[in-house]
Write the structure tokens for this entry.
Amino acid sequence: MRLLINKIFLALSILSAGVGLAFLAWILITLFMKGLSSFHFSLFLNDLIEGGLRNLIVGQMILAGLASLIGIPLGMTAGIYIQEYGQGRYAALIRDLSDIMMSAPSIVIGAFVYAIVVVPMGGTSGFAGAIALAIMMIPVVINTTDSMLSLVPRELREAGIALGASKYKVIIDIVIKAAKVGIMTGILLAFARIIGETAPLLFTSETSNYFSLNLGESFPSLTVSIYDLANEPEESSRDLAWAASFILTVLVLIINLTGRFITRNKK
Amino acid sequence: MPVMKIKKFSFTYSGVEHPSLKSITLPIEKNKITALIGPSGCGKSTLLRSMNRIHDLYPGNKYDGKIELLDFETGKYQNILEIKKENEFIELRQKVGMIFQKPTPFPMSIFDNVAYGLKIAGIKNKSELQDRVEAALKGSALWKEVHDRLDKSAMGLSGGQQQRLCIARAVAVKPEVLLFDEPTSALDPISTGAIEELIVELKKDVSIAIVTHNMQQASRISDYTAFMYLGDLIEYDKTENIFLNPKEKQTEDYITGRFG
Ligand SMILES: Nc1ncnc2c1ncn2[C@@H]1O[C@H](COP(=O)(O)OP(=O)(O)OP(=O)(O)O)[C@@H](O)[C@H]1O
Ligand SMILES: [Mg+2]
């Protein structure tokens, strides 16, 4: 009887894993075929207005980079605070808040930033987009920092204190170093997540057909342009959207693999 | 002469009703090894961890009595339970070092591990740092094994080497007292032997308190032994007296293996 149940469970697990993998393969194959057939190296050299993707790729990177510049320090500080210093209500509050923020739909975050940044500033801008992405990123960074620091053994902190180091010095010199790999991987995965986001940018940065480094105006975004291009009637636009999706997927894949590679090599 | 005098010391953990230590009075003799033995949960670690006030990392514990530490310069005793200021804590912990059950190498190079306490003590001069690190590693019988890879990560050492590194790190700041909490229970017999030898060697320079579950270890290396039971100090005497001629029945039962 036990054996039979085991076998049924095994069969069900294999079946569901197979279905999952099949869909993943289907998506990837479609993406690669459609993407590769419209892919050309000149896409990297021309801007959208000339039928290329250069400005969009650069713009997306700048948005995600700026979001990281805001999100990583804030998220790490908060994560360190709740794990190392917070025992009372504040830490619990921040932890709960961060959990809620993590599950907030990205379109809601986009709408929120629209209301508090775009409307007062009188228009969409690269800044607004980066802020929306940073808000997406912060709870993930808080969560990773918090949980990676919690894995550092108590004795390691005590050993630092026992040598006369003050608490903050132990945290900076020892605890963060011990958790470095985990935190870095988490941050990389958070980056991979925001770089592929569309909804938070849709009405914050929008997108632009031209190359731009001016964060005060509508800013080129790969994801938002994919959304726009896919809705255009012409075949050529949709082909370009496929190529852009392909490039984005490869980019996210590379970041993810780098994250895994770091973890594997350091452990 | 005792380097530390524990007087009527009681300790109650935060959120717990019953005290884990009840009015303990015990000396830690200078340049001797004092072993703390007793069944699990009797309060050995609690007592040891009071001697450098590492408990203070966690708020809410209650304690009472005195723990007096000899100041080598003035020859006077200072009650370490009265310490409140940050710089006094740093001073206390540089005088009273600690080695844990599991080796605790820091995630940095071998050199930086040993130099860590020295840098905190304010030593910046490069050549002085180098000399002190070398001396500490030699004093911990680790120099031969690591002198050609001081800049390599300490995480790459074996468990026994890591534990000796932790001892070197503690010895480097020239403490008066070293506290060991079951320092060999995570190690193989050969590494254990090396650490025991090292501890005996160290008593030239420091006074030592060591918690151990291993009766043979206590009788092999210690000069004095304290037997604790349920938060009480049952008996304290020269080690040979405790093991050959205990006065209390509980002590005898414990060392002959009838309980614990
Ligand atoms: N952080 C803590 N909070 C509350 N009670 C504690 C705490 N740590 C230890 N205790 C209790 O205090 C008593 C003494 O514990 P302690 O760790 O000092 O024992 P021990 O003699 O070192 O035991 P072992 O040989 O198992 O290490 C035990 O009853 C234990 O349950
Ligand atoms: Mg213990």
